[in-house]
């Protein structure tokens, strides 16, 4: 166990007990023409964290620790997309509509894929999730139980929506949670700042926050297991 510099206190990172969850680093959120852009957002903010996220993933892979990827997407017939989710607001394109990267947020479409720089390796777990939280309507909890991990590091987008929701779900399930603060981003920089403050406030009420460099250094030399993980569709 190697405590790493973190907020609000050093995080007791245990290289034999930790897994990484990378949330929704999909073309639909990071590239022009996708879901994020259809809501009027500047996607370049999210693209900026790709190099740091790649370093974090590389650190987990080098340490032989599990890397889990999630994708927010829906079935082609939209049977898992509540009308309230699809109809809310006035986006340029709604979930299921056809855009330049195929149908918005639909499993199997180009836009729903993870950006090529962060593509899952063969055998890494990929969780397709219809909600903002990765535990909702997926088998993530079962996979984590099988992996026998107690600590989860979170990265991905967006900080205040799917990352925060999933981190809160994990916290309620008893995991020690850590957010990689330079490997997560929001379309709204103030929301990212506020989310990390909320997470770490009150003695880390949801979890701690640390930079990628500290997390990767803390994993250094870990002789962890690299249990093969089957790609899973939720
Ligand atoms: C959003 C997400 N922001 N992955 N999804 O709708 O955070």
Structural account:
The chain is globular. It is built from 9 helices and 10 strands. A hairpin with a 6-residue loop joins strand 1 and strand 2 (11-13). Helix 4 runs parallel beside helix 9 (212-219). It has 234 residues and is of the alpha/beta class. The two termini are 33 Å apart. The strands form 3 sheets. A 6-stranded parallel β-sheet has the order 7-4-3-8-9-10, sandwiched between helices. Residues 221-234 have low confidence and may be disordered. The structure holds dicarbonimidic diamide. Residues 24, 29, 72, 132, 157-158, 161-162 line the site of dicarbonimidic diamide.
- For the CA atoms, what is the radius of gyration? 17 Å
For the report, how would you describe the main beta sheet?
A: 6 strands, parallel
Indicate the percent of residues in helices: 25-40%
In angstroms, what separates the terminal alpha carbons? 33 Å
Form type: globular
């Amino acid at each position: 166990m190697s405590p790493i510099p973190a907020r609000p206190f050093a995080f007791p990172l245990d290289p034999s007990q930790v897994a990484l969850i990378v949330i929704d680093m999909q073309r639909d959120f990071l590239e022009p023409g996708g879901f994020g852009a259809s809501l009027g957002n500047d996607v370049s903010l999210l693209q900026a964290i790709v190099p740091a996220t790649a370093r974090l993933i590389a650190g987990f892979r080098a340490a032989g620790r599990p890397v889990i990827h999630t994708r927010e997407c829906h079935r082609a017939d939209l049977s898992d997309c509540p009308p309230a989710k699809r109809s809310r607001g006035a986006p340029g394109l709604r979930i299921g509509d056809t855009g330049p990267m195929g149908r918005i947020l639909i499993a199997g479409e180009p836009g729903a894929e993870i950006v090529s720089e962060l593509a899952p390796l063969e055998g890494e777990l990929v969780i397709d999730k219809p909600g903002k939280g990765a535990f909702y309507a997926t088998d993530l909890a079962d996979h984590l139980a099988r992996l026998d991990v107690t600590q989860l590091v979170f990265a991905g987008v967006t900080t205040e929506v799917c990352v925060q929701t999933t981190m809160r779900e994990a916290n309620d399930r008893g995991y020690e949670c850590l957010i990689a603060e330079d490997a997560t981003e929001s379309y709204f920089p103030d929301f990212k700042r506020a989310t990390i403050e909320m997470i770490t406030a009150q003695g880390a009420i949801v979890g701690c926050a640390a930079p990628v460099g500290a997390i990767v250094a803390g994993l250094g030399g870990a002789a962890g297991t690299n249990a093969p993980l089957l790609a899973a569709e939720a």
